Predict the structure.
Amino acid sequence: MSPSFPVTTWQGGQAGFGTLEGSHTQWDTSDIWIRRTFTMPNGNYKNLQFYVFHDEDVEIYVNGVFAAKATSYNTTYEPLKISAVARKLLKSGAKITLAAHCHQTGGGQFLDVGLVNVVNE
């Protein structure tokens, strides 16, 4: 998804999106596209990962670059590896548009995507 894709007609809402418990914004159609633009805080990002709860198939993009996908569904938040190309875009001070598409075929549905830096203790 291109970061310049016009979103003037998009609805707004708080994550997570869906029909399952924990949803903050109702989503009950077959597909949803979400996006958020932000500036990466200053930091030492050595182990960035997506933290994703999806029901069902999900694709994630960083500044229009394919970053990750997962098929089927999960029942809780799980880490998802970021592609090397997308990872290079996630630098301190960078303007980032994070976008995701989720496709639903039946049953309950949910989507929430986060970006985390996993630090070994």
The longest strand covers residues 31-39.
